[in-house]
Amino acid sequence: MIITSIYKGILFAERLHAQWAAYLDLAGIHWEYLGEDNFQVFLECVHTECCFDRSKPIEHILNVTIVPYADSEQVQEHYNRLFSSNHYDDPSPAVFGATPLTVYWIMLHGAGGGAHTELGWGEASGSHKSLLDHWKKAYEKVEFGISEVK
Predict the structure, then answer these.
(1) 119: which DSSP letter?
(2) What's the predicted TM-score (pTM) here?
(3) Rounded to an integer, what distance in angstroms lies between the CA atom of residue 149 and that of residue 1?
(4) Distance separating alpha carbons of residues 148 and 2, to the nearest angstrom
(5) Of the candidates 98, 93, 71, which has an alpha carbon nearest to the alpha carbon of residue 82?
(6) pLDDT tens digit string along 24-58?
């Protein structure tokens, strides 16, 4: 028997992956599931140093690896093991952990860019409490089931 996780008709490899998909939707962030533990995430930006016309936002693209770590330091260590150089690639490599408070990526943004350690982007931006409230709502949107292994 295996536990299945389904969101928007997509069968995800892990419950955590499905919850991330639901969270990104709640945040108004476009995403694409690439299978196994990989996503591509598109962060819309109207920062004046990223796009000169605020009516035409650009997208920062992240290639995301999902890991089950609940500790920020573990997420950052995993990132450093996977991506020892080329942090400012486009798309930017990223590691998302067990909550929106356990993420890590480095990207060009604004006047230079830098490291990001929580996913408070789009409609999910705000306090840690609001990020975790969105996370709980995302959990409720995922369908779980059990299927027989053939």
Answers:
(1) -
(2) 0.83
(3) 5
(4) 7
(5) 93
(6) 999 889 999 998 888 999 987 766 566 666 667 77
